[in-house]
């Protein structure tokens, strides 16, 4: 039976021909007749453009689905791609907006997290790019290894995908906020399998972590191989820091010494200069904050259940035994709900090895010198008080505190606070009181981030959650009081909402969500009131203890415009944590003109001993550097951004 006859049995004409020139396997031949109606599609209109080998498959997506895209099924049920190193597709953005396009390679049972691998490309209008999914190269030994509590492993993701049993390719755009149009061509598998790190696994594989906390079975530039090598780097770095003390154009705060002279207030402030928002340093100089998060000397890792990973954990009674400690914070993942775990801090152990008994003071001073030498002028969120209070680099303070929960709310890290409970203000005031005589009134302190990545939810989520709380929830009592003041009689509310509550007390006791469409106006009003109460209360307490410092917001991770509008009223600066490849599309809601801070972002690569890239992947250090330069250039070119902070500091000592 001919290939053409076989292909006619499937929804898509797919061939398994091998290109003699490049060793590539064409997975989808767009030059052959295709039945577009048979391609599984979600919120996508499909068409073909061009002729012959130059033909492209055009996808025009809309916002009717969270993941608009298509499935390209394998002929005969699967592709065997075990002889190839990657799957790739070329993409052109034909629309007027920047677009993110993803390629997912599936095994049976793929669900977006398991049994699949996904990569992406972000394209400006009119630009072209290639999405490449590296195929893992596991081995019989690797398949039997059990890894505990890890997001990535040393065996190239072999636990997530079998290249010999690829059943589907998914091309999609993630959670678009607008319609997009893009074309895909040259859907293929290619390259040679990279057996380097997983095809020749040592047997036994464990232990895999050496005495310094590094992966044992691979080498890379900058890896520490001995204590002597670690000590030799002290002199090397001292020479480098002396040669490169920092940018010549900086003043002592890292402001633009030869730039415009604005009013000097003795503290950091925000101001608009020539239609662009800026931070202004205490000496009145323009200050664009380039920061790094988490500048501290601690970075413990759990060892419970993973003791077999480590080649040389120290004895408890040795000088390095002091770096064992109990841990309990595990909001998700393997250690969640396990009642705590034991952990070890290789960072502190290595600092003791390198600098001796006064390692803490030496590391603190060195951190300031390093930052200035590298062109970094801000110790950003999560940094150590013991380091930033040396007052040699401007810093921000992370403020976290305990307060009563809004019990029916949800969040990535915790429930939302009940901002109508007096305990909310009391808890914040108690925490901020600790800043008196430290950061409060300190010219080196830029300001305060209060909370982080709160569960603001979508649309009116916090108002709905409030109604789902018990009757004794202060927020619910405040909401019902507002409704009673508006409608006066419960019958009037029942008419508006389509409900049948017998009394206001019955509404207070009820714990169900109303019809969001019918109750929408009231839900929107109370959501806004919740957000306004949150930001107003925080601002009042921050300014009470530190009137000269800036209130830098709550570090939004998701965007709810009602919450952002409330933040714009009370925050000196609105902050966002943005793990994206670009901030070109980032804008505040219409009508708001406020300065913004990016509190966290990063790119990660696996060529320096890491097992997981984090939230945004780079191919290697060179790709990481070019991506960061492009990201920062785009950020600096926009008028609203004051700074960015890379996440995270502790990688080497």
Main beta sheet: 6 strands, antiparallel
Q: What is the rounded Rg?
A: 28 Å
Name the structural class.
alpha+beta
Number of helices: 14
Q: In the CATH hierarchy, what is the superfamily of one domain?
A: Galactose-binding lectin
**Percent helix range:** 10-25%
Stated plainly, the CATH topology of one domain is called: Jelly Rolls
Spatial gap, N to C terminus:
64 Å
Low-confidence stretches: 1-22
The count of DSSP E runs of length 2 or more, i.e. the number of strands, is 25
Provide the β-strand percentage band.
15-25%
Mean pLDDT: 91
Quick description:
By secondary structure, the protein is of the alpha+beta class. It has a domain at 3-190: Jelly Rolls (Sandwich), CATH 2.60.120.430. The chain has helices spanning 3-7, 140-143, 227-243, 346-355, 359-373, 385-388, 422-433, 461-467, 474-487, 490-497, 504-509, 520-545, 561-570, 621-637; strands spanning 25-28, 41-42, 44-49, 56-61, 69-73, 86-93, 99-106, 116-123, 128-134, 168-172, 180-190, 269-273, 276-280, 286-287, 289-292, 301-302, 324-327, 341-344, 378-379, 395-399, 445-450, 550-551, 574-577, 596-601, 641-646.
What would your notes on this structure say?
- The protein is of the alpha+beta class and 653 residues long.
- It has a domain at 3-190: Jelly Rolls (Sandwich).
- It has 14 helices and 25 strands.
- The chain has helices spanning 3-7, 140-143, 227-243, 346-355, 359-373, 385-388, 422-433, 461-467, 474-487, 490-497, 504-509, 520-545, 561-570, 621-637, and strands spanning 25-28, 41-42, 44-49, 56-61, 69-73, 86-93, 99-106, 116-123, 128-134, 168-172, 180-190, 269-273, 276-280, 286-287, 289-292, 301-302, 324-327, 341-344, 378-379, 395-399, 445-450, 550-551, 574-577, 596-601, 641-646.
- Strands 1, 3, 4, 6, 9 and 11 form a six-stranded antiparallel beta sheet that branches. A five-stranded antiparallel beta sheet has the order 2-5-10-7-8, with no helix packed on it.
- The longest helix has 26 residues, at 520-545.
- It starts with a helix and ends in a 7-residue tail after the last strand.
């Amino acid at each position: 039976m001919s290939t053409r006859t076989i292909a006619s049995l499937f929804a898509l004409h797919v061939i398994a021909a091998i290109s003699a020139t490049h060793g590539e396997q064409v997975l989808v031949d767009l030059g052959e007749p295709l039945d577009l109606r048979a391609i599984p599609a979600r919120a996508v209109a499909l068409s073909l453009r061009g002729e012959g080998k130059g033909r492209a498959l055009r996808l025009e997506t809309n916002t009717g689905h969270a993941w608009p895209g298509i499935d390209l099924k394998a002929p005969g049920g699967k592709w065997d791609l075990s002889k190839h190193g990657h799957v790739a597709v070329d993409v052109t953005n034909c629309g007027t907006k920047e677009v993110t396009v993803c390629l997912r390679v599936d095994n049976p049972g793929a669900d977006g997290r398991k049994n699949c691998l996904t990569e992406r490309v972000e394209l400006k209008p009119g630009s072209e790019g290639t999405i490449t999914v590296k195929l893992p190269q596991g081995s019989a030994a690797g398949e039997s290894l059990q890894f505990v509590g890890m997001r990535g492993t040393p065996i190239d993701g072999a636990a997530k995908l079998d290249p010999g049993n690829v059943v589907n390719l998914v091309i999609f755009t993630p959670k678009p906020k607008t319609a997009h149009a893009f074309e895909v061509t040259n859907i293929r598998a290619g390259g040679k399998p990279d057996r380097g790190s997983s095809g020749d696994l040592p047997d036994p594989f464990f232990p895999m972590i050496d005495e310094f906390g590094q992966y044992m079975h691979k080498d890379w530039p900058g890896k520490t191989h001995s204590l002597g090598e670690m000590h030799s780097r002290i002199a090397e770095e001292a020479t480098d820091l002396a040669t490169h003390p920092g940018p010549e154009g900086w003043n002592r705060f890292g402001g633009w010494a030869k730039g415009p002279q604005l009013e000097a207030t003795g503290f950091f402030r925000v101001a608009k200069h020539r239609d662009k928002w800026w931070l202004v340093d205490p000496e009145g100089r323009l200050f664009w904050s380039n920061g790094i998060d988490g500048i501290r000397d601690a970075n413990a890792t759990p060892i419970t259940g993973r003791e077999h990973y480590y080649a040389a954990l120290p004895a408890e009674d040795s000088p390095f035994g002091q770096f064992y400690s109990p841990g309990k914070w595990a909001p998700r993942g393997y250690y969640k709900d396990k009642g705590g775990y034991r952990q070890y801090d290789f960072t502190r152990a290595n600092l003791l090895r390198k600098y001796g008994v006064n390692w803490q003071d030496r590391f603190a001073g060195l951190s300031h010198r390093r930052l200035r030498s590298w062109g970094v002028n801000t110790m950003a969120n999560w940094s150590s008080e013991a380091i930033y209070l040396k007052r040699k680099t401007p810093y921000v303070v992370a403020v976290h505190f305990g307060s009563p929960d809004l019990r029916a709310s949800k969040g990535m890290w915790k429930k939302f606070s009940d901002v109508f409970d007096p305990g909310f203000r009391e808890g914040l005031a108690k925490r901020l009181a600790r800043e008196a005589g430290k950061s409060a009134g300190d010219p080196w302190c830029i300001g305060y981030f209060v909370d982080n990545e709160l569960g603001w939810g979508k649309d009116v989520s916090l108002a709905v959650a409030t109604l789902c709380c018990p009757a004794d929830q202060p927020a619910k009592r405040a909401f019902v009081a507002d409704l009673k003041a508006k409608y006066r009689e419960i019958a009037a509310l029942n008419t508006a909402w389509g409900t049948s509550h017998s009394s206001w007390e019955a509404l207070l006791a009820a714990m169900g969500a109303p019809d969001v469409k019918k109750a929408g106006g009231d839900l929107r009003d109370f959501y806004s009131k919740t957000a306004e109460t949150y930001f107003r209360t925080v601002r009042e307490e921050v300014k009470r203890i530190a009137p000269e410092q800036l209130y830098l917001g709550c570090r939004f991770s998701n965007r709810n415009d009602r919450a952002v509008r409330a933040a714009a009223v009370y925050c000196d600066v609105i902050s966002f944590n943005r793990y994206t490849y670009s901030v070109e599309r980032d804008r505040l809601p219409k009508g708001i003109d406020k300065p913004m801070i990016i509190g966290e972002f990063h790119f990660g690569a696996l060529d320096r001993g890491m097992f997981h890239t984090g939230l945004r992947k780079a191919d290697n250090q060179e790709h990481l550097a070019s991506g960061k330069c492009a990201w920062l250039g785009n950020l600096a070119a926009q008028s609203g951004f004051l700074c960015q902070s890379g996440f995270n500091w502790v990688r080497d000592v």
